[in-house]
Amino acid sequence: MSSNNDFLPINGTDYVEFYVGNARQAAHYYQTAFGFQPLAYAGLETGLKNRTSYVLMQDKIRFVFTSSMHADDSIAKHVSDHGDGVKVVALWVDDARKSWEETTSRGAKSYQEPQTASDENGEVITSGIHTYGETVHIFVERKNYKGPFLPGFVKWEPEYRPEPVGLKYVDHMVGNVGWNQMNTWVEFYAKVMGFNQLVSFDDKDISTEYTALMSKVMSNGNGRIKFPINEPASGKKRSQVEEYLDFYGTSGVQHVAMATDNILETVTALRNRGVEFLTVPDSYYETVLDRVGSIDEELKALRKLGILVDRDEEGYLLQIFTKPVQDRPTVFYEIIQRKGAKSFGKGNFKALFEAIELEQVKRGTL
Ligand code: FE2
User: Is the N or C terminus of the chain more exposed, i.e. has fewer CB atoms within 10 Å?
Assistant: First the structure.
């Protein structure tokens, strides 16, 4: 799917940065629960006065957790407004200056003009643009850099190092946007970033008795970046996208899907470490094989772990969703194993919605 007129070539997701209330504790949680490995640190000890950041890594996935040291800066305000959430979806590029020029000239609002940072490990050029809500994209050009993360960060080497759980790379990242805003942002990714639309679901595809959503998936030229964009659709009660918007306060990242080569092992490890997943109604497993046909895995094992299955023309996929990982019902994770399928689990949306609604009933927010 490469095209030679791709004006924004992207090598992959560089990192995802979360603004959180307590970066130190967040880092510990992602080590302990999700098996991320310590990578880099910046804070008071490295000369930073206003914030602290911990960087963790698992195979190709890099997460940064940043918290403010003061009451009234933009990081503290972000946490106060949204709770813990994703601020930066950073994209790895070969030319951060050109990425900024190509996107801002097509209408992107600049977040950060191209700038070079350097230390004894070389130099990194970054630039940034705004996307939905308060979320931003940072373009990272790191071909002349050999340090652990970015200039200003030092290696973080704690003794505590729980094992990885087999998470490999970011498969896709979903944005929830407000009522009637899906097409605005689909157009943004098409026009400003040169992405193509892969698929769309309307409210008839993704609805239960109570709630609905609409979704379109945007992908970059080489297919390494996939951003489904959801907007709420009206139903009898408050949908999960509306609930997200109410608690996050604006549009934002709803979930990060992380790929594994062995979902049975990964989810077993995550469960043993205390990660909580949505439970699917038992009835799901009574009919799933009628829908998806034969699969390599034993149904019993999938049922025990609550793993969902879906099939498209090219193969099938296995997926599972965590509960939200902070107090507000906002950001959560998907663990996905693709066995040929290139889609996103449309056939599971209804089963999943019913599971989410059970959780909403418990929260009194349906
Ligand atoms: Fe997903």
Answer: N
- Quote the pTM value: 0.94
Ligand 1 center from residue 208 Cα (angstroms):
18
Of the candidates 251, 187, 250, the one whose C-alpha atom is nearest the C-alpha of residue 216 is: 187
What topology does CATH give the domain 3-155?
Answer: 2,3-Dihydroxybiphenyl 1,2-Dioxygenase; domain 1 (3.10.180)
- Compute, in angstroms, the gap from residue 350 CA to the centroid of ligand 1: 13
The secondary structure element, H or E, covering residue 113 is: strand 110-119
Q: What distance in angstroms lies between residue 361's CA and the mean position of ligand 1's atoms? A: 22
Question: Locate tokens 């689990």: which residue?
Answer: 345
Query: What is the fold of 167-363?
Result: 2,3-Dihydroxybiphenyl 1,2-Dioxygenase; domain 1 (3.10.180)
Distance 330 CA to ligand 1 centre (A): 14
Expressed in angstroms and rounded, the spacing between residue 135 Cα and the centre of ligand 1 is: 18
Per the CB < 8 A criterion, the answer to whether 122 and 66 are in contact is: no
Ligand 1 geometric centre to CA of 255 (Å) = 7
281 CA → ligand 1 middle, Å? 19
Q: What is the pLDDT of residues 205-247, one digit of tens each?
A: 666 665 677 889 999 999 999 999 999 887 767 788 999 999 9
pLDDT score of 2:
47
User: Same CATH fold, 167-363 and 3-155?
Assistant: yes
Q: Which residues neighbour ligand 1 (ion) by CB within 5 Å?
A: 257, 334
**288-323 pLDDT, tens per residue?**
898 899 999 999 999 999 999 999 999 999 999 999
